Amino acid sequence: MGNPDYFADLADELYALGDATRIADGIAQTGREAVGCDAAAVSLVAAGRRIQPAAGTSREAYRAEQLQGSLGEGPGRVAAEDREVVVADDLAADGRWPMWAGDVSELGFRSSLTVPLHERGRVFAVLQLYSERPAAFGAEQNAIATLLARRSSVALAAVRRTDHLKQAVDARTVIGQAEGILMERYGLDADTAFSVLRRYSQQGNVKLHDVAERVVRERELPGLGALAS
C-alpha cells in the first residue's frame, strides 16, 4: 500500500473530496490504514506553531491533538518548527513533552509518529499516527507516512488556497452589499460608503467584514453621521 503509484492516485482522490475538512479526514484514515496503526489525526499549524485539530480517526486521537493546542507542547509543534519527522517510542516515559505525553498515555496511546506536511518550505499541517504499543513506528512506517504526507499535502494545500480565495470573494461580496445599503439609505456615493465602513472598522477595532455583515443584517450603521462627516 505504500507504493508511489498508489499515493499519486490518492492525491487526486483526496482533492476531489472538495474541502479541507474532508481531505484532512481522508488523510487521517489513509494514514491509519497504510501504516497499520491504531489511530491517526491531522492538525493544521496556525500562527505561533499552534496546533489546531482538523480530523481524527477516533475521539482519543482528536483529543490528543486538542491537548497539543491547549498545553502548547507536543510533537506537532516540534515537527512544524524543525520540519522533520518526530518519533516517540514510549509516551509513558517521554520527557520532551511531560504534560502532553502523560495525558496521551492515559488515552491509551504508547507511541506516536508525527510527519509534517509542507507547502513551499512551510509546514502548514501535521499527520499524527498513534499506536497502543510502544516502539510501533520503525523505518518502514516512517517511509510510508512520509510518502503519504508528501502526496497528500498537494491536495490539502490546493483546497486551502481555494477556500481562502472563496472566503475573500465572499467577504468582498458582503462589503459590496453593505456599500449599496449605505448608498441607498444615506445618499452616499460608493467611495464615501466604503470609507465609512473602513473608519467604523478602525475606530471600533472590528473587522471590516464583520462591520459589513452588521450593515447587511440591520440595514443601518449606528453613528453614521459622525463617521460620514
Could you explain the architecture of this structure?
By secondary structure, the chain is an alpha+beta fold. Helices cover 60% and strands 16% of the residues. It contains nine helices and five strands. The protein has helices at residues 4-16, 20-35, 59-71, 75-82, 98-106, 139-186, 190-204, 208-218, 224-228; strands at residues 39-46, 50-56, 86-88, 111-119, 122-131. It has a five-stranded antiparallel beta sheet with strand order 2-1-5-4-3, sandwiched between helices. The radius of gyration is 23 Å and the shape is elongated. The chain starts with a helix and ends with a helix. The mean pLDDT is 85.
Question: How are the secondary structure elements laid out?
Answer:
Layout (H helix, E strand, L loop, with lengths): L3 H13 L3 H16 L3 E8 L3 E7 L2 H13 L3 H8 L3 E3 L9 H9 L4 E9 L2 E10 L7 H48 L3 H15 L3 H11 L5 H5 L1
Antiparallel strand pairs: 1-2, 1-5, 3-4, 4-5
List keywords for this structure.
229 residues, alpha+beta, Beta-Lactamase, Arc Repressor Mutant, subunit A, 5-stranded antiparallel β-sheet, 5 strands, 60% helix, elongated, ANTAR domain-containing protein
Q: TL;DR of this structure?
A:
The protein is α+β, with helices and mostly antiparallel strands and 229 residues long.
The run of helices and strands is: HHEEHHEHEEHHHH
Largest sheet properties: 5 strands, antiparallel
CATH architecture of the largest domain: 2-Layer Sandwich
SS summary, helix count: 9
The shape, in one word, is: elongated
Tell me, rounded to a whole number, the average pLDDT.
85
CATH class of the largest domain: Alpha Beta
In which order are the strands of the major sheet placed? 2-1-5-4-3
| Strand tally | 5
Structural class: alpha+beta
Strand content: 15-25%
